[in-house]
Amino acid sequence: MTDFTQKFKLKTNPFRLTPATNPNELVWAGFVDIKSKFERRIERSIRIPNSTLVLNWGEYGSGKTHAARYFSKLDVLQDLASKADRAVPYSFVFSLPKGKEPVYSVFISIIDKLDIDHIRASFQHILPRLNDFIDSITANIHIRSVIKAVFESSVPFLDIKKYLYGTMNSSELKSLNSVGILRLLKDDTDYASVISLLFSCLTFNKEVFSCIVVWIDEFEDIAVLNNTNIDKINNFIREILDNVPNNLLLFLNLTQSALISVEDLGQYVYDSVRSRIKERISFDLPSKDVLKLYLKDLLSFFRVGEDVNLFFPFDENVVDRIISEQGNVSIRQFNESLSLLIELADMDDRSPITMEVFREYETDIIWHKD
Question: How far from chain centre, in Å, is Cα 313?
């Protein structure tokens, strides 16, 4: 069998059916308008000390998860920070928890991604000013002590991690008594207070990190929670936004589904949260021109060598035919068709993929035609 790269002039099959988790494999192709909206929104948060809630809305497979992962890449955030001449943002991405204690699960998701060693090293030179800042913005002595311990290098790393995870027993807790931590975190109010103060400290004067960018993916799963947990999630988001008035950008990725639509959004996202939404970014089903630009861009990232046909290994009329036959579909469905087509052509040593080749596989490719 002919080598894939030699046959198709591509490093590998570029059509991912799920978003990449390896940052090096995350690229942005086409969809210029959506990319620009995210860049402007993030750059605004990098520059301006205010907190913002943004709702990202679209059908399943429209690219919301990909956007979250792409715009959490350090090099992408660094480029945006450089344009604004500010420090880089600190980014968190996680899916909405569906368990019995969603706020605790959100808290753990954030702690999981917290690089305490890096944070301590980054803030060491401003620690006295940071401690004064902590004292000035909360009267809760316990929460102040917890956050100071996060930034204080003299507190053993494993001790503060175990404490935040809630896995420290009463005997081990005594090791933290000397820094004012006398009890464990016990409820949603504690978790919200710790996260709020932590975010405010990480973005202190925009000196080390310019803003916090949080993406809550699969937010439509709130529809499967019971009323009590829907209340908890809404209250948590409201408290975070209220208690981090500066330098927080929160994205909610929400998929329109049989369980939740624009009309019944109010059942799950309360007025206290919806009133704080500053922008809605819509992931609409792409047009023919948008799909073709996306395809050309994507192929260029994986291209080996050069070819006159920017759609190679596909003939352009094959691309047009697939788009025409599929009707209005998501980018994931478009990728599925092209991925299967190139795999079948690879198995049968067919290249380039002409209309004649496509017709051989058409019934396998257009199985989800509307």
Answer: 32
Residues 61 and 44 in one domain: yes
Q: Are residues 194 and 297 in the same domain?
A: no
- Residue 200 CA, distance from chain mean position: 20
Which two tokens mark 52?
């913002």
pLDDT of residue 261: 63
Of 11, 14, 5, 3, the closest CA to residue 338 belongs to 14
Same domain, 150 and 222: yes
Residues 260 and 319 both lie in one domain:
no
Q: Tell me: do 319 and 181 sit in the same domain.
A: no
Give pLDDT tens digits for 83-126: 999 999 999 999 999 989 999 999 999 999 999 999 999 999 99
Residues 306 and 272 in one domain: no
**Is this prediction's pTM over 0.90?**
yes
First to last CA, the chain: 35
Does 61 share its domain with 170? yes
Q: State residue 216 phi and psi, 5-degree precision.
A: -105, 105
Specify whether 37 is located in the same domain as 86: yes
Residue closest to 279 by CA, chosen among 70, 32, 57: 57
pLDDT tens, 242-276? 999 999 999 999 987 655 666 667 778 888 898 99
Burial of 37 (0-12, 13-18, 19+ CB in 10 A): middle
